[in-house]
Recover the amino acids of this structure.
């Protein structure tokens, strides 16, 4: 027989509303009373029905997290940090994976059916209409890794142009003149910004790209595209990649061809994933601060969940240059 909140209330000697408050993050209840009720609930095997709570207008404590390909090292790292921070707030992440090219609306609509309190969107294409629909259903959103066109929701994004300017300055300072670019999927916000940022920053240094190729953010694609670039007529003396995984692949390609890094070829990435600092790669890159991004995203989301109004806010996180051995 299923244990109910009434059973817990009777055993603990409290009201049913006290049981509800004990399982609601941020609810007004004495810590000792909350601990007592939860201990009784554990003894009886009671678990609150979050869906029922949501349907009756209460908070479920669920935060939808819309992410892309978590096989991407940065995406999995971001998801790990975000999940930990959501749990630290006494809430639970509801993972909503979206494949490249997949429409985000059906997945997000399904998440809203679980009566989530809010959503962190780190993948897919979001517009003002979708943001307003989520808000009207009681689930404000914050967009991470891109700026929402036309407003409609708060967003947090790395300053990609500033990051690429740091790389361009280093390339110029080390005398590199034939620069190659290996980017990711053309339609992604970060890829577009990083490519345009690099072009502009190189131009400011009197440099230009001599070769461009497209990968899929994986190590394998970075290696394949670098092999093609380094054996072709446009052979560069430096390769800048749209993320660290592809840059690690580019270093591997150079080694396969017997090309010294950084002597004959410089390589730079973006994001500063943990593997970038590993000794076999020692990748020069730009840090895309994960912890700060997550902190700001959850701060903005918590503010909206609490009912704070106001114009959407966009926060650009300042990157940091990580000088290592590859450039």
């Amino acid at each position: 027989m299923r244990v109910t909140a009434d059973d817990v209330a009777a055993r603990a000697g409290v009201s049913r509303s006290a049981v509800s408050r004990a399982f609601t993050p941020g609810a007004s209840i004495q810590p000792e009373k909350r601990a007592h009720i939860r201990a009784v609930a554990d003894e009886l095997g009671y678990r609150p029905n979050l869906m029922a709570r949501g349907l009756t207008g209460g908070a479920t404590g669920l935060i939808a997290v819309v992410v892309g390909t978590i096989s991407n090292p940065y995406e999995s790292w971001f998801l790990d940090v975000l999940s930990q921070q959501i749990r630290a707030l006494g809430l639970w992440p509801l993972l909503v994976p979206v494949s490249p090219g997949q429409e985000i609306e059906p997945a997000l609509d399904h998440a809203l059916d679980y009566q989530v309190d809010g959503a962190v969107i780190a993948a897919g294409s979001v517009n003002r209409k979708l943001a307003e629909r989520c808000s009207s259903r009681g689930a404000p959103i914050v967009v991470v890794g891109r700026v929402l066109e036309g407003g409609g929701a708060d967003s947090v994004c790395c300053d990609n142009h500033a990051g690429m300017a740091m790389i361009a300055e280093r390339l110029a300072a080390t005398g590199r003149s034939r620069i190659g670019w290996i980017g990711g999927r053309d339609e992604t916000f970060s890829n577009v910004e990083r490519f345009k940022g690099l072009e502009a920053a190189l131009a400011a240094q009197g440099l230009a790209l001599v070769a461009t190729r497209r990968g899929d953010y994986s190590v394998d694609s970075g290696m394949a595209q670098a092999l093609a670039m380094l054996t072709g007529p446009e052979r560069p003396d430096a390769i800048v990649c749209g993320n660290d995984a592809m840059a690690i692949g580019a270093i591997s390609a150079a080694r396969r061809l017997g090309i010294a890094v950084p002597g004959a070829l410089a390589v730079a990435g973006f994001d500063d994933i943990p593997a970038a600092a590993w000794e076999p790669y020692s990748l020069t890159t730009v840090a895309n601060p994960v912890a700060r991004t997550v902190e700001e995203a959850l701060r903005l989301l918590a503010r909206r969940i609490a009912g704070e109004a106001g114009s959407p806010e966009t926060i650009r996180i300042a990157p940091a240059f990580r000088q290592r051995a590859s450039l």
In short: The chain has a mean pLDDT of 89.
